[in-house]
């Protein structure tokens, strides 16, 4: 009888992966789903914490810190916009210096410190203004010192979140060998599971955490967030011995800068008609994926022109390999796609700001005793995330596979486009619901009274559901697009660029809110402190128009883009 094959007998080392002791990684004892599960665990804890704070932060700032509605909305968008934009420099640090594992460890610890400071500010009475009572009917806004403590806590937390997010998905995909057919298929599934665990953490935040914050108090809610981050870090570190690690590829920003500098230095040189005359440097870049020469951005080809007069003084700042040049071109081609997704996140953030304000003025009772927290309406967004993923796999993929002759179903760009289209429907639904809500308020004489409007909060479900479904399409599609198309040595930076589009959407929202408030605030305000006096629906219509124009621009960019895999196939 044949003996079972053991790991030692079947071991095979991977050419570009190492274990925690810096030895060549063995396929059967490192990586795979066991390692990926630890990484998915830290992602779920991070989402539980982030959205446990984000979904209800407007309520905390207005009701506990006594800040205005517009000010509170801008604080939320600025804090979380900062967290996402910090993922870009953090991704650069991970690629060039620390590696993804150490980056995740350090920044998760920073995130834990920020959430702990936020918990302390919610516990200590002197760190927040006095509560509104019958004996003190005036709202006392937070003092300067109280706001300083709050801002330090929020931005330390934002720093930790940005650093963690830059590397967690890339480190997860590192656990699979994309040159192996079976593991390559598993890596495709990893992105779906990554989003699923993200949604599970979001669901816990939108239901359990928000309920605890509203009914048991902010210290309990934020305390649970602190514990979740620490647990996530412990789970992540427990898998260190099984992880696969990639060698540092050097600074991707230095590579990009070197190509531009070399091209500028050779700007007066004539480009050869035959691209084989350009410097390929294959003898020095055996681990790099060779990319076919393209005719776009031909000015950059000058970086690879050979100069016989400088044979003894060749540096990366005077000449770049053709592979380096093509990698930089690849990033440049991806930039328009990244840019056109910003508008989706501008709409997405409204679900945590003004849509929560809408919900706070509507009838949120189920039966006579239970009252839904306003921020818990995000559960419909998270629920649609969870429903969209299996709906896509079981229904959309089989249909589109036959219609489009694509084994993946929809391509990454088609998934992104679907998400953008759904966001337009969502903001139109939000505008129509707000018109309905204001009509009910006026018909009951509640225009000057910010009390509850006799209209069910469930009228808001369509906008939350559509945004959640759109997020599922755009998040997975964009993540897949970034990881597949970007050069391997820029994986963390590409994730950072993807996440920076989210931050750009948040900041764009803040800028739009400031502009609209300045232009309309003194006459007929769109964004009034008393939402029943405002014209929030006009702000939503503005977002719908901007989103429609952005969608048209995306279609143009998607038509122009050619996938890396297709270019490689054309060049055999």
Care to describe what's here?
The chain has 572 residues and is mainly alpha-helical. Helices cover 65% and strands 3% of the residues. It contains 18 helices and 6 strands. The strands form 3 sheets. A two-stranded antiparallel ribbon has the order 1-2. Helix 11 (342-348) crosses helix 16. It is globular and about 80 Å long.
SSE string, helix = H, strand = E?
A: HEEHHHHHHHHHHHEEEHHEHHHH
Major sheet attributes: 2 strands, antiparallel
What share of the residues does DSSP label as strand, in percent? under 5%
The count of helical stretches stands at 18
Unreliable sequence segments: 1-5
Strand order of the largest sheet: 1-2
Helix content: 55-70%
Assign an overall shape.
globular
Describe the structure concisely for a colleague.
The protein contains 18 helices and six strands.
List the helices and strands and how they pair.
Blueprint lengths: L6 H4 L2 E6 L5 E3 L5 H33 L4 H17 L1 H12 L1 H24 L20 H30 L7 H35 L2 H21 L13 H14 L56 H19 L1 H7 L5 H7 L1 E2 L1 E2 L3 E2 L6 H27 L7 H32 L9 E4 L4 H25 L5 H30 L15 H25 L3 H7 L2
Parallel strand pairs: 3-6
Antiparallel strand pairs: 1-2, 4-5
Helix pairs in contact: 2-3, 2-6, 2-7, 2-8, 3-6, 3-16, 4-5, 4-6, 4-16, 5-6, 5-8, 6-16, 7-8, 7-13, 7-15, 11-14, 11-16, 11-17, 13-15, 14-15, 14-17, 15-16
């Amino acid at each position: 009888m044949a003996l079972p094959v053991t790991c030692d007998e079947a071991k095979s080392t991977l050419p570009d992966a190492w274990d925690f002791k810096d030895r060549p990684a063995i396929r059967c004892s490192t990586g795979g789903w066991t390692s990926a599960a630890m990484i998915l665990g830290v992602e779920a804890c991070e989402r539980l914490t982030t959205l446990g704070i984000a979904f209800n932060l407007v309520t905390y700032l207005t009701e506990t810190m006594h800040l205005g509605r517009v000010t509170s909305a801008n604080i939320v968008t600025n804090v979380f916009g900062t967290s996402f934009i910090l993922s870009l420099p953090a991704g650069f640090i991970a690629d060039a210096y620390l590696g993804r594992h150490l980056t995740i460890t350090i920044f998760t610890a920073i995130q834990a410190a920020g959430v702990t400071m936020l918990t302390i500010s919610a516990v200590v009475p002197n760190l927040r203004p006095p509560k509104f009572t019958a004996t003190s009917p005036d709202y006392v806004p937070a003092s300067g010192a109280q706001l300083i403590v709050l801002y330090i806590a929020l931005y330390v937390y934002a720093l930790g979140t940005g650093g963690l997010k830059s590397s967690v998905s890339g480190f997860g995909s590192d656990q699979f060998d994309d040159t192996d057919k079976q593991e390559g298929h598993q890596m495709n599934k990893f992105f779906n599971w990554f989003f699923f665990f993200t949604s599970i953490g979001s669901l816990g935040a939108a239901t359990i955490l928000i309920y605890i914050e509203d009914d048991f108090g902010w210290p309990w809610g934020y305390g649970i967030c602190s514990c979740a981050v620490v647990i996530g870090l412990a789970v992540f570190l427990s898998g260190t011995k099984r992880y696969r690690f990639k060698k540092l590829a050097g600074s991707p920003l230095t590579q990009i800068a070197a190509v531009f500098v070399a091209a500028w230095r050779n700007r007066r040189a004539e480009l050869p008609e035959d691209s084989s005359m350009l410097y390929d440097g294959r003898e020095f870049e055996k681990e790099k994926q060779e990319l076919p020469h393209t005719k776009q951005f031909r000015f950059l080809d000058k970086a690879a022109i050979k100069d016989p007069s400088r044979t003894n003084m060749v540096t990366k700042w005077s000449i770049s390999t053709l592979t380096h040049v093509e990698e930089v071109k690849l990033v440049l081609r991806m930039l328009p796609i990244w840019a056109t997704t910003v508008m989706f996140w501008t709409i997405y953030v409204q679900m945590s700001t003004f849509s929560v304000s809408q919900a706070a003025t509507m009838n949120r009772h189920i039966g006579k005793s239970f009252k839904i927290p306003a921020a818990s309406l995000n559960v419909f967004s998270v629920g649609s995330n969870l429903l969209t993923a299996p709906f896509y796999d079981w229904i959309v993929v089989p249909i589109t596979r036959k219609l489009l002759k694509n084994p993946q179903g929809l391509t990454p760009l088609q998934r992104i486009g679907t998400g953008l289209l759904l966001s337009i429907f969502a903001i139109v639904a939000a505008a129509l619901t707000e018109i309905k809500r204001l009509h009910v308020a006026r018909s009951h004489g509640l225009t000057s009274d910010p009390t509850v409007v006799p209209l069910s909060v469930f009228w808001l479900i369509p906008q939350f559901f559509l945004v959640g479904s759109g997020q599922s399409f755009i998040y997975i599609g964009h993540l897949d697009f970034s990881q597949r198309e970007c050069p391997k040595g820029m994986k963390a930076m590409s994730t950072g660029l993807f996440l920076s589009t989210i931050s750009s959407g948040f900041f764009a929202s803040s800028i739009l809110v400031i502009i609209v408030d300045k232009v309309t605030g003194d006459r007929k305000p769109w964004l009034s402190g008393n939402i029943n006096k405002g014209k929030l629906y006009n702000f939503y219509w503005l977002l719908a128009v901007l989103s429609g124009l952005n969608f048209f621009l995306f279609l143009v960019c998607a038509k122009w883009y050619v996938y890396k895999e297709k270019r490689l196939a054309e060049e055999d």
